[in-house]
Design goal:
Helices cover 28% and strands 21% of the residues. By secondary structure, the protein is an alpha+beta fold. The chain folds into three domains: 79 residues, RNA polymerase II/Efflux pump adaptor protein, barrel-sandwich hybrid domain (OB fold (Dihydrolipoamide Acetyltransferase, E2P), Beta Barrel); 46 residues, Irregular (Dihydrolipoamide Transferase); 198 residues, Chloramphenicol acetyltransferase-like domain (Chloramphenicol Acetyltransferase), CATH 3.30.559.10.
């Protein structure tokens, strides 16, 4: 399984493009792999004959795990490593140890061998969630063998360690001189996620839709986001009447000149990124033991596609004019809906703008795109009677901004100040606004 992105640790085999016995050329696609970021074709690293498929369609594997065997051109076809290891183990005398010249142990031996403690490998690699579980259970993570990518400690590793009865106290602490015994304390059990709800019993007329790899990864990502980040949502109402008038005046000439639609998205995105420069704390991520304030503003644009949802990234968005944002966003959206996004288009986002208003939504509470601090949703623009200056009632084009934020990173005060800045910028747009 190749590394399909810096933060990608596993992939799901979506569809095999070759079968056992097929000849493959170097760099020829052999299968499609789905991750939580993008679907991609995996090319053959060299030419030869496909001799074994080691993973089934729909199976998820960690980065670095084998997915197939290919016998290089000109070399005799060999059995898969798993089969060869099993055959060698069966034919060898029981009392004869493996020769020292053998460099690669059988897969079962690799799986059963305990990884080195984290203390021997430097800083513990794990997620904030696992750190919290370990803290609650009083477990020293440096003693937990990690089986994830590059020795990462997973929740399963922590649970396995607790179930083994191993001591959670480092040996150096155990060897220290005994101190007066403290008063007995009640051990705090580690958090256990509730068991999944049993699916309902099928009734007459039901039909079933198989989970695609993208749908499955979206589901996992949403559950993880809601579990890890304490979500809070704020709403501001914005008078978009001046923006509506500006867009109406610009639209015919703009679309004739640029060849792309002029929607409300670039106007809201422009106001959002200018407000991010005013409040850089919003352009941040949770870093476990620190908060990371990003210097660059890379805005993800949420795009609905037939299989689900993707968030391509508009890099250095604060450097674009309104016209530039319209062109760049249209390019990302068009390529997303035609399946032409590259993995690089989906990485590195620091903030997300969502547009459910294009489907008629007037009020929503978006889910944060991890590990970002916040997501802004623009809702539908609706004409409503409102009270204006002088206590008069007028019909105005109104829109709600929905802003979900990670309460570990941000508090309500800064979130509302940010929304107030976006609101002021949108309401100040008019005939004098520069779009180029």
């Amino acid at each position: 399984m190749p590394q399909l992105g810096e933060s990608v640790t596993e992939g799901t085999i979506g569809h095999w493009l070759k079968k056992v016995g097929d000849l493959v050329e170097k760099y020829e696609p052999i299968c499609e792999v789905a991750t939580d970021k993008v679907n991609a074709e995996v090319p053959a690293p060299f030419g030869g004959t496909l001799t074994a498929l080691l993973a089934e369609e729909g199976q998820t594997l960690k980065v670095g795990e084998p997915i197939c065997d290919i016998a290089e051109s000109g070399a005799p076809a060999a059995a898969s490593p798993t089969a060869a290891a099993a055959s060698a183990a069966a034919s060898a005398p029981a009392a004869t140890p493996a020769p020292a010249a053998v460099a690669t142990p059988a897969p079962q031996a690799v799986a059963s061998a305990a990884p080195a403690p984290q203390a021997a490998r430097g800083r513990v690699r794990t997620s904030p969630y696992v750190r919290r579980l370990a803290h609650e259970a009083g477990v020293d993570l440096s003693l937990v063998p990690g089986t994830g990518a590059e020795g990462r400690v997973t929740r399963e590793d922590l649970q396995r360690f607790q179930g083994s009865g191993a001591s959670a106290v480092a040996p150096a602490v155990q060897a220290a001189a005994p101190a007066p015994a403290p008063a007995p304390a009640v051990a705090q059990p580690a958090y256990q996620a509730p068991a999944p709800t049993a699916p309902p019993a099928p009734i007459a007329g039901d039909s079933f839709m198989a989970l695609t790899p993208m749908r499955r990864t979206i589901a996992e990502h949403m559950v993880r986001s809601k579990h890890e980040s304490p979500h809070a949502t704020a709403w501001f109402e914005v008078d978009m009447s001046r923006v509506v008038a500006l867009r109406k005046a610009l639209r015919p000439e703009f679309e004739a000149r640029e060849g792309v639609p002029l929607t409300y998205l670039p106007f809201v995105t422009k106001a959002a990124v200018e407000a991010l420069r005013e409040f850089p704390q919003i352009n941040a991520s949770w870093g476990g033991d620190k908060i990371i304030i990003h210097g660059a503003i890379h805005v993800g644009i949420a795009v609905a596609i037939p299989d689900g949802l993707v968030v391509p990234v508009l890099r250095n968005a604060d450097g674009y004019s309104i016209a530039g944002l319209a062109r760049a966003a249209n390019d990302l959206i068009t390529r997303a809906r035609s399946g032409r996004l590259m993995l690089a288009d989906l990485e590195g986002g620091t903030f997300t703008v969502n547009n459910p208003g294009s489907y008629g939504s007037v009020f929503s509470a978006p889910v944060i795109n991890q590990p970002q601090a916040a997501i802004l949703s623009m809702e539908s623009i609706v004409k409503r009677p409102v009270v204006v200056e002088g206590d008069a009632i007028a019909v105005r084009s109104m829109m709600f901004l929905s802003f979900s934020f990670d309460h570990r990173i941000l508090d309500g005060a800064i979130a509302n100040q940010y929304l107030g800045s976006v609101k002021r910028r949108l309401e100040a747009m008019g005939p004098e606004t520069q779009v180029y």
